[in-house]
Design a protein that fits this description.
Layout lengths: L11 H5 L2 H10 L2 E5 L6 E5 L2 H8 L4 E2 L2 H5 L10 H4 L9 H12 L2 H19 L7 E3 H6 L1 H11 L3 H13 L6 H21 L4 H8 L4 H31 L2 H9 L4 H11 L9 E3 L3 E3 L2 E3 L4 E4 L1 H4 L34 H18 L4 E2 L21 E3 L2
Parallel strand pairs: 2-8
Antiparallel strand pairs: 1-2, 3-5, 4-10, 5-8, 6-7, 9-10
Length: 389
């Protein structure tokens, strides 16, 4: 196996369309050693579906970032609430944090939230009229999950827009100083919010689950950042995929009751998570026939795994009849996204409203290249101009 000479996940062409790169890498080998950034550093990138599922559940792949960087120099300055959270921990600490997070998104609680999600969508779209233009990202895909997660955590309405913008900055792969500054804005703000809201149900639930004050701030930050960014991309990517596949779009227009079942295929086809969050090997292991030494970052790419033809025949085709429940867009194993039920509810509500109120909406400028976020972690649009009809 020959490693690429340059980081394949930082090419501008990758941000616009990662799938040709993923296909090329997977065809070469589903587990590859690749350069990351500058300075001669390398990681192992996993692009195969079976290999990704295996890696997601291998306890020798740790998510404890503090452990990895303990003896490695770094000039980063992330706020502790962002740098140390449930996503950057292993059991038993992770188990305790996840137990609290999972209770926030039970089937029953999400069912109770659905009327609120519907009201938010209705409010955001109330002024929309056929014949007008909107930006689906700015006008719906961002404010919907931001409003819902801020309501959960107790963020006042006046602060939500600014907080969402700083959360957006955390995913800027081109400016680490901007990322670090955003982390402190979010961490400091949520620290003050938690300290001033001891009787809010979120704070009480965290305390009842055994989390201390700093852990509560950390969980609030994780819910805010992960809870809205990925759902924003889920909605935007799903709408774009349907617009580019008119037969699938027409099918859902004619029978909106099919939308819930279509969500898995939409998640598989263009995953809002392109590369999963950081992992590293704590000891030598072997995945997909490839040896991974101890002490290396390991990048699992759900975006690539979801297009693996060994798992999903004809993977570059959106097929609403496909059983896509094995997609990895929410991860797999103990780190699978606990907020997945809420993300699905928000996307389902948004799609239902769009397709029933504006059944003939279309891209405003179909021939114009769409702007994509410049980050390898998530896959999402900066904007999606639509004409309502």
């Amino acid at each position: 196996m020959t490693a690429p000479r340059q980081d394949p996940l930082r090419d501008p062409r990758f941000f616009a369309d990662p799938y040709p790169t993923y296909d090329r890498l997977r065809e070469g080998c589903p587990v590859q050693r690749v350069p990351t950034g500058s300075g001669g550093h390398h990681a192992y990138l996993i692009t195969g579906h079976a290999e990704a599922r295996e890696a997601f559940t291998d306890p020798r792949l740790s998510k404890d970032t503090a452990r990895f960087f303990a003896d490695r120099p770094s000039n980063r300055d992330l706020h502790p609430a962002i740098a140390r959270n449930m996503l950057s921990s292993d059991p038993p600490a992770h188990t305790r944090h996840r137990r609290v997070a999972t209770r926030l998104f039970t089937t029953g609680r999400v069912r109770e939230l659905r009327p609120y999600v519907t009201r938010v969508v209705d409010d955001l779209t109330a002024a929309w009229r056929p014949g007008t233009e909107i930006d689906l990202v700015a006008d719906l895909a961002i404010p919907l999950p931001v409003t819902v997660v801020c309501e959960l955590v107790g963020v006042p309405e006046a602060d939500r827009t600014t907080l969402a913008a700083r959360s957006h900055d955390l995913f800027d792969a081109t400016d680490t100083a901007r990322v670090d500054a955003a982390s402190h804005h979010i961490g400091d703000y949520l620290s003050g919010l938690i300290d001033s809201s001891p009787h809010h149900w979120f704070v009480r639930d965290c305390a009842a689950g055994g989390l201390d004050r700093d852990e509560t701030v950390s969980l609030a930050a994780l819910l805010l950042v992960a809870g809205h960014e990925t759902t924003t991309h889920f909605i935007g990517n799903a709408v774009l995929a349907l617009l580019r596949h008119p037969e699938a779009l027409d099918r859902l227009r004619r029978d909106p009751a099919l939308i819930p079942a279509a969500l898995d295929e939409l998640l598989r086809f263009d995953s809002p998570i392109s590369v999963a969050t950081f992992r590293h090997s704590t000891q030598h292991l072997r995945i997909g026939g490839i040896d991974i030494p101890a002490g290396y970052p390991v990048l699992i790419a759900p975006g690539a795994a979801n297009r693996d033809p060994a798992a999903f025949p004809d993977p570059n085709h959106l097929n609403l009849d496909r059983d896509a429940t094995a997609h990895l867009s929410f991860g797999h194993g103990i780190h699978r996204c606990p907020g997945a039920p809420l993300a699905r509810a928000e996307a389902e509500t948004a799609l239902h409203t769009l397709l029933t109120r504006f059944p003939h909406l279309h891209l405003t400028t179909p021939a114009t290249p769409l702007p994509w976020r410049q980050t390898r972690l998530t896959r999402g649009l900066k904007s999606l101009p639509l004409t309502l009809a």
